[in-house]
Amino acid sequence: MTAVQPPTLEPEVDALEVGTTATRTTGARSRIPWRFLGGRAAFYLFTLWAAITINFFLPRMMKGDAVDQYLARNRNVSPEAADALRALLGLDTDKSLFEQYIDYWAHLLRGDLGVSLLHGLRPVTEVISQALPWTIGLVGFATIVAFTIGTVGGAIIGWRRGSRLDVFIPITTFLGTIPYFWLGMLAIAAFSVNLRWFPIGKAYGVGTKPEWSFEFIGEVIHHGTLPVLTIVIASLGGWMLGMRNMMLTVLDEDYITVAQAKGMPNRRVLWGYAARNAVLPQIQSFALSLGFVVGGTIVMEMVFSYPGIGKLLLDATNAKDYALMQGVFLVITLSVLVANLLADVAYAFLDPRTRQTEA
């Protein structure tokens, strides 16, 4: 008779270590979800093409153009010079709209975004490169600070639900309902006009020459403190409320109860299991916020007279400077798409369900 082989026992998998949706061994978590990432990359490439196309046609649907605005301010320009300006800006009436579209793509692939009439025929890339660091340094830093404080604070408040910490939720939510410009003007009136702690506006003092020195950096930080605090206070409530609500949902899951029943320290359960899963929906919102950092906060930059991308876009729109408008829109679009793509990549590695869906 043939001996009956005893059944082979599969190694037991701890659902707490693998994740609540784990159906395979821990070796599967290192698999790269190529199908998911490839699909997202194709989607973003199509979105980029659509955005660039809209970016080309939308300004041309507006009444008038940058040359008309320029001629209204400078009446001594000859018709020949006006035609040369239109040809330089890609607005040549001798070419069809489709031919202008092809030329636009040809210049775009060479990295040529045209010239800006508003800034004395300077290259658009040069104009944007000078305004971009101010917006990234200010709005980007404020967004990261608000996200960090709001996420950590929301996790702690959600973990200690029913405690006195809950009072922070209505306070921060109320501050988040105040418009940027109103909160900014209140901050200027209180801390700049009355207390004279901070300058009223600008990125640095009048007459100061930008340079890499501790004195200039300190002056920039001094001028940027009030706008940063304004952005953080206005956006903190959304991050804190979102994380707190997700924590309340996650804390009712069975794996949290099992982890506590095993006698794990509360700190490990909080940050290793509850907050780790609750933060996943926040990642997409954070990536979107980082993408829109490049766009800046137009109202905030206007209130504080800050030389960022937001103010640059507003000035270009008022002057109907097509090339500058298209350049700014393109930079904003690229930043949003790249930020969302990076968020999808991070999501794919942090959330086991993404890898299991591909499998």
From TrEMBL:
SUPFAM superfamilies: MetI-like. InterPro entries: MetI-like (IPR000515), MetI-like_sf (IPR035906). Keywords: Membrane, Transmembrane, Transmembrane helix, Transport. PROSITE patterns: ABC_TM1 (PS50928). The chain crosses the membrane at residues 41-58, 131-159, 180-200, 220-241, 286-307, 327-350. Residues 132-343 form the ABC transmembrane type-1 domain. CDD domains: TM_PBP2. It comes from the Bacteria. Belongs to the binding-protein-dependent transport system permease family. This is ABC transporter permease.
